[in-house]
Every structure is written in structure tokens, then in C-alpha cells.
Task: inverse folding
């Protein structure tokens, strides 16, 4: 099977590593990829937001399967164009991708499906902002109702900061969503979804704030671990039965069946799981940890989803133990990152590339905010953490930063529901 992966991050590097291990995969291509993906696949420099360019590339490489990693091409309908051109495609069409592309759409689907989520209000007129803010708090959750790579969400007890973020979104022409704050530890549960067929992967936890102990602003994700020792199996089953399956069924009912990876981000509160957000694609950096434990052939699972045969896929098998991924970020991330710095040690085992490129001398340099994702595995969380941080210690990137506490609260038994 010739597979074309769309995207350039650590998630896509993890997908390529998983696909390369599947004996049914004979050829790997990626667009645009990064400096690390060339070890596994042929990189193609195309505009992945352009349906015409992606379809032309799929024709050129004669792809049997196209796997779309990021949300932007999905929301823009690249999966629809590929399917129309006859390519088996992993990733939802534009209509179903609205589950991530429009927070208001996601809320509407959840209300119709009877899924627990935060109370919310959409504000699209600056004149209504203050009155709306007064109806929320003392912790404000303000979301940009558009795609913002995880950085469009501000959660704060400071009303002025909440107002500033909302006003900024409105000024740039996006409505904002104000939400009641959901208390409780967060879980990312990924499911392969093909219409109403749902196959969950193992749950993971992301660390969204930039600094240790959840300090500082939100990012796209600074690290993740899996599985979650504090989450009972029956809660995972409850999420599948009470959240993922009803949402998949509601999308089918609306004539927008989902095909691909549905990411449910949830807070596990005293009354059970409530949805914080849905994404229409694999999460980053959770994917790097989750796929490190997948024993089943990844290409066959993605192909079954893409070809509408997920119900015939044998149960997924997982390695025992744990996996941890730690993101190495460029100076100033999540603000405008410093780029162009030479990185050493990035070709070691367990080091996945994200924002990397090669300079004119062929050296690997930083080219984005989240530069690398370093993965460790082990018999338990302690071993996986130790391996991830040991691998990270072998990498040099001037000005870079990372969190030192990925998975630590879980390891120390400090998370309970
Ligand atoms: N890890 C958060 C995301 O992928 O959106």
C-alpha cells in the first residue's frame, strides 16, 4: 500500500513511524513533512491547504491511501476533493470537520446528541461582550470560534484578561464562545470513526500550559502520557457510549458522517465526563505517546476507516506499560518563536520532529514553535518518563524550553476523580 501523509508536525512523524512498521505499507510520502520525516518518507513541498495541489500529488505518487493529519485542510474540504477524485482518504469531509472548525456547530451537535458539555454563549457583537462576561466567571473560559492551533483558548480568573482576549478575537472578525469552567482532570480520547462505528484508542492526557505545574499561557500541547493510571476502564467505556457514539450518530443523522479520527477532549468532573472540545484529527502531542504503544498494524486500521470497513477490523492490540512524550519548544513559544537555530542530537531514537527544516548547509534547524517531541516508553510511567527525559538531555537547541513535569502528578498519585 502506497500511503501519502499530509502535514508537517510531530503527529505526522509519529504516523509515519507507525505506518513504516506495518508490513502492508510499501511506500511512504509526506507533504510537506519536516527534516525528520525524510528518513522514512519522500517529502513533497506542496500547499496542503489547496485541494487541487493535494489531489495532484496523490495522483503523482499513485496513493492507495491518503492520511490527513492537520485540521486546516480537513476544514477546507481537502478530504472531500480526494474522495471525489477516487482516493481512499483518512479524515472527515468539510461538513463533519466543523466539529472542530466551529465551536458553535460542535455545541449544537452535542445538544442534539444529549452529550454533557459546558454551558456556553456565542458573542459576535463587541457591544454585548461585557454583559455576557458578567454571566460567567469567576473562572472565565474564552474561545476563539475558529481554528487557532490550541492557542485560541484563554482560561483565567482575571476578568480583564478574559475581556482582552475576547475583544482581540472579535476585532479579528471571529465570534467568541464564553463557556462555564469545567473542573476536573482532562482526558484526550481518540477514536477511529467510520459513520456509526467507533473504535477507541487508549486515553491520554495532554499538558496544555507552557510551564511546569500548569503555569503560563495555553499552547498546542507541551507533553502527554498514556495510559492514565487514575482513569477507571469503565469511565473510558462511558465516554465511548455516552459521548463519542451519540456524536457520531448525530453527524450521520445530519448527513455529515464522520470518517477519520474523532478527538474528544473531556474534563472528568464529579458528575462524570463533560466535553471540553472535539477535534477532527489526531491530537498533538498525545499521538506520539499513544501510537508508541500500538501493536496492531496502523496502516490497516487507517485504511479500514477510510474504506468504510472499520467494523471488520480485528480488535486493536496495545503494548503493556506506558509512554510519555515531552515537547521541546523554541525560545518565546507560544509567542512568535525564534527560528533558524541549529539543533544537535535530533536524529536519536525516540526523537520525533515537528518544527524542523534543513539550512543551506544541510544542518537541522528550528522552523516552528514546537520543534521536537521526545518519546520514552517503559514498563510503567516512571520508566517511560525517565527514558523521555534522558533522550531529551541529548538534544541541544539554543533558547529552547520544555516542561519537566509531564506525567508527574499521575505518577505521584495526585490526580483523582
Ligand atoms: N493536544 C491538543 C491538540 O491536539 O489539539
Result:
Amino acid at each position: 500500500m502506497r500511503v501519502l501523509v499530509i502535514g508537517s508536525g510531530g503527529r505526522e512523524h509519529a504516523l509515519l513511524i507507525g505506518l513504516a512498521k506495518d508490513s502492508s505499507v510499501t511506500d511512504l510520502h509526506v507533504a510537506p513533512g519536516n527534516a525528520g520525516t525524510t528518513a522514512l518518507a519522500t517529502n513533497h513541498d506542496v500547499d496542503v491547504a489547496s485541494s487541487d495541489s493535494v489531489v495532484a500529488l496523490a495522483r503523482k505518487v499513485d496513493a492507495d491511501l491518503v492520511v490527513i493529519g492537520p485540521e486546516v485542510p480537513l476544514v477546507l474540504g481537502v478530504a472531500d476533493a480526494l474522495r471525489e477524485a477516487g482516493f481512499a482518504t483518512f479524515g472527515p469531509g468539510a461538513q463533519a470537520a466543523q466539529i472542530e472548525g466551529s465551536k458553535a456547530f460542535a455545541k449544537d451537535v452535542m445538544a442534539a446528541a444529549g452529550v454533557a458539555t459546558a454551558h456556553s454563549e456565542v458573542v459576535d457583537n463587541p457591544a454585548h461582550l461585557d454583559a455576557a462576561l458578567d454571566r460567567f466567571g469567576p473562572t472565565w473560559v474564552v474561545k476563539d470560534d475558529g481554528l487557532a492551533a490550541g492557542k485560541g483558548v484563554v482560561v483565567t480568573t482575571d476578568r480583564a484578561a478574559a475581556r482582552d482576549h475576547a475583544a482581540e478575537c472579535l476585532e479579528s472578525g471571529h465570534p467568541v464562545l464564553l463557556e462555564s469552567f469545567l473542573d476536573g482532570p482532562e482526558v484526550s480520547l481518540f477514536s477511529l470513526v467510520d459513520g456509526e462505528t467507533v473504535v477507541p484508542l487508549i486515553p491520554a492526557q495532554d499538558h496544555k500550559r507552557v510551564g511546569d505545574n500548569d503555569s503560563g499561557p495555553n499552547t498546542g500541547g507541551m507533553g502527554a502520557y498514556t495510559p492514565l493510571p487514575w482513569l477507571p476502564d469503565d469511565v473510558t467505556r462511558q465516554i465511548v457510549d455516552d459521548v463519542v457514539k451519540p456524536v457520531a450518530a448525530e453527524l450521520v443523522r445530519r448527513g455529515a458522517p464522520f470518517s477519520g479520527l474523532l478527538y474528544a477532549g473531556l474534563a472528568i468532573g464529579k458528575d462524570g465526563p463533560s466535553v471540553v472540545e472535539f477535534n477532527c484529527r489526531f491530537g498533538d502531542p498525545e499521538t506520539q505517546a499513544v501510537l508508541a504503544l500500538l501493536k496492531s498494524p496502523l496502516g490497516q486500521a487507517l485504511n479500514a476507516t477510510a474504506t468504510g470497513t472499520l467494523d471488520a477490523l480485528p480488535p486493536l492490540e496495545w503494548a503493556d506499560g506506558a509512554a510519555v512524550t515531552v515537547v521541546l519548544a523554541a525560545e518565546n513559544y507560544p509567542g512568535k518563536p525564534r527560528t533558524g537555530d541549529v539543533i544537535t542530537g535530533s536524529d536519536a531514537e525516540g526523537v520525533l520532529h515537528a518544527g524542523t527544516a534543513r539550512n543551506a548547509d544541510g544542518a537541522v534547524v528550528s522552523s516552528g514553535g514546537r520543534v521536537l517531541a521526545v518519546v520514552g516508553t517503559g514498563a510503567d510511567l516512571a520508566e517511560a518518563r525517565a527514558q523521555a527525559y534522558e533522550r531529551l538531555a541529548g538534544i541541544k537547541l539554543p533558547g529552547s524550553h520544555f516542561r519537566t513535569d509531564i506525567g508527574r502528578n499521575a505518577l505521584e498519585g495526585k490526580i483523582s476523580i
